[in-house]
Amino acid sequence: MLRTGAEYLDALKDGRNVYLGSEKVADVTEHKAFANTARSFARLYDLKRSPEHVEECSVEENGDRYSSWFLLPRAKEDLQKRARLHQLTAEWTHGLMGRSPDHVASYIAGMCMQPDVFEGQADVWFDHLLAYHEDIKKRDLFVCYLVLSPQASRQAATEGPQYPSLRVIAEDDKGVVVDGMKMLGTSAVFSDEALVGCMMPLSPGREDEAITFTLPMNTPGTKIFVRKSYELDAHNKVDAYFSSQFDETDAVMVFDKVHIPWERVLVHRNLDVARDMYYRTPAHIMGNHQANWRFLAKYRLLNGIAHKAAEMAGLLQVPAVQQTLGNLAAGESAIEAQITAQIHAPETLPNGYVHINRRFLYSTLHWCANNYYQLAEDVRTLLGGNPFIMPADASILDDSETGPIFDEMWRIPNAASRERYLFNRMAWDLLGSEFASRHTQYERFYGGPPHVMNMYNFMQCPWAERQALVNGIVQEMERCINR
């Protein structure tokens, strides 16, 4: 089915244990720290099922329609269908929702596409994965993931538990009992369910941590601890347009002796499959294809801000400014070309499924992680000192005493005072606020630390082919000597 935004919001009223500091949040759809962002996600559900978009955002099966981010692609056309929904979702959220509902759905779809990674393995249940994919597809659920252990646990096993990483502490004929912490649950507050697993490798001796399962966000014994809310401090769309409605939040999840039924367990005590399910299947690349579309939407927004800032300041004819805008424009088109190439040079699995080009995906991911800071800095530079001379808040605009003064004194040749205020407020929210700093850090570590990004590209390059090219030239040179 394609559920409505109202149905999505109703599902969030499920008694989940969300903590903002020491405050237990009674209802995330009504709390000032989360309500607007919850409605932004609800809007996605309404837009993709609207008459205008339903055909391009969904697929029909057995007389019903399902979100195309659940589609298991068997042709380039299927990849294009999925990509269109990624693109629209990114545009509707200005690229600011890194973990929108299409992200983890794409991971799960990618896992389902390569059963040979699971089959024949001990303590692995591929049939549970297929059943889960079918369930979330039919109910149109929003799934987040928590697949990293706390930093203190990322070491070889030591004598006894020295860290709070999630582990199995008991099991019976009904399921397993888990205890500990998992991170980083971006959008966990707004999700229906979570996939909990191990994206990083685990060393021998840590089999109790090699557990992968799914669960509803209101499961007894779970607590969700969120970071500081930027939405809470963003009082309206005028003074904080983005942070007031697109703060997806980041969270950790604590499990206090939580029982997980066997039918929700995907992997148990299998160190290899616990990680391989992300990287030996197309899961990681399918999920991050969504991330590339999201980055492109944000890049386009940055370029719009950059051009308007230069236009307002009367700088569009300055060669140095044109050079900056030219560099920004070139980067945007290059990223779009890379994303398009991922679809138009797909890879085919022996079972007939197709996935986006792995090498092109990782090179795009690498570029985005390593260049966002400079992109933001270049656009921020074009703003100059304008954000610092804007009044404290929008109350000045229509005040009978201060409004006329503002209208007269803050106008410039290329913009009226009100337009100047609104633009600079919007731009600074994206580029200079605490919300903006979170996005800079988020993009930098989106796919992992920089050295991890380098390793992805190192591992995917066909080095033997490259070396064969060089060796062929050397051999030809050798033949020239012997003539």
CATH-scheme architecture of the largest domain? Beta Barrel
* Poorly predicted segments: none
**Major sheet description:** 6 strands, mixed
Mean pLDDT: 94
Into how many domains do the coordinates divide? 2
Computed Rg: 25 Å
Name the strands of the widest sheet in spatial order: 2-1-10-11-7-6
Distance between the termini: 73 Å
Written description of the protein model:
This protein is of the alpha+beta class. It folds into 2 domains: 275 residues, Butyryl-CoA Dehydrogenase, subunit A, domain 2 (Beta Barrel), CATH 2.40.110.10; 185 residues, Up-down Bundle (Butyryl-CoA Dehydrogenase, subunit A, domain 3), CATH 1.20.140. It is built from 16 helices and 14 strands. A hairpin with a 2-residue loop joins strand 3 and strand 4. It is globular and about 75 Å long. The mean pLDDT is 94.
Write the layout of secondary structure elements.
Elements (H helix, E strand, L loop, with lengths): L4 H8 L5 E3 L2 E3 L9 H14 L5 H4 E4 L2 E4 L8 H17 L9 H11 L13 H14 L3 E4 L20 E6 L2 E8 L10 E4 L14 E6 L5 E5 L3 H4 L17 E11 L3 E4 L2 H9 L3 H30 L6 H26 L2 E2 L5 E2 L2 H26 L18 H8 L7 H15 L2 H11 L5 H11 L2 H20 L1
Parallel strand pairs: 1-10, 5-8
Antiparallel strand pairs: 1-2, 3-4, 6-7, 7-11, 8-9, 9-12, 10-11, 13-14
Helix pairs in contact: 1-2, 4-9, 5-6, 5-9, 9-10, 9-11, 10-11, 11-13, 11-14, 11-15, 13-14
